[in-house]
């Protein structure tokens, strides 16, 4: 069947326009805002403050001018003039000092009522695989501070007394002072810390059982430059958008477009145009997801080889499918059979690995149950639609066969 020229021209323009929009520089840099700590040359470094609205000299003194002697040695004995103090998120304030031997003293403070407060060190800005120091006061008023290994998103996968932070022999301390809770600890790193992904979170419910953390009430991830005391917010919405685009493309639109040729072939040529338009839309959303994933990899060092490798492989298969659309031979061509095999099996491979990559992405990102339930719902709906359509298709074939004359003979050639 010949392809109308206006349809080919329209799809070329549509794909080109979307590619142009996606690679625009505003798309690349959107969602990041740098907040830098300014230092008065006439005052010690501890009087630094983030240059945001409403934070002036009074805010500096209130946030960073607190005497820390209540923490006890060695944290309370350190000269505040040697420590960098930086408001970092909400009411969270980070104080730190790096020695020449790469031993770092870290003091995190935040407004506290109940529950827990934590700071985590991540490789790529994601919770999965990071280590965190968490402090709280239990219902009896006893202080608790522990290191946790964040193996996954569920509470059972946040493991107490485990982690990769290289704590030295100085015991960590948690203390209440006024309305603030203070977490203090020391760690000896292999190299001097520079730009480092930091996770911050708090929960208003107490840890349960054997110090298992309850779900956080709020969290954030930032790039913190320990050499310059600057904060670069990691826009978690970019990860969310990457996941939504991939889920829509490979979990909904492309599977729906693949169903049409199998069950609507009797509606010729409607099935063909529906299939082509839906698959092009899915390809564009999938391409947008890949481009956003590349941006996340470059900006967050989100090194997830399996997820990235499968994503690139699926993109290549998708591009080959788009090329197949423009190279589709006529029905009477001797090459049509081979084209059909190629188009069918490459499409199935792309759908399989696209679905697999959605599962891996949800797992690596430490996404919550909402994502798993949402994707499970899409899979269930797709499976239900296939079962219903397959049932109707079998019934139609049986009906057509029963309507044939009793002496009708099929041509076996």
TrEMBL record:
Compartment(s) where it occurs, according to its Swiss-Prot or TrEMBL record: Membrane
Key word Transcription present: no
Cleaved signal peptide residues: 1-25
Every DOMON domain range: 90-203
Cross-referenced InterPro entries: Cyt_b561/ferric_Rdtase_TM, DOH_DOMON, DOMON_domain
Boundaries of every Cytochrome b561 domain copy: 208-398
The organism's place on the tree of life at top rank: Eukaryota
Keywords: Electron transport, Membrane, Signal, Transmembrane, Transmembrane helix, Transport
Pfam families: Cytochrom_B561, DOMON
Classification via PROSITE patterns: CYTOCHROME_B561, DOMON
Membrane spanning residue stretches: 243-264, 271-297, 309-328, 349-367, 373-392
Chief place where the protein resides: membrane
Cellular component aspect of the GO annotation: membrane
Protein name from the UniProt record: Cytochrome b561 and DOMON domain-containing protein
Native species: Gossypium klotzschianum
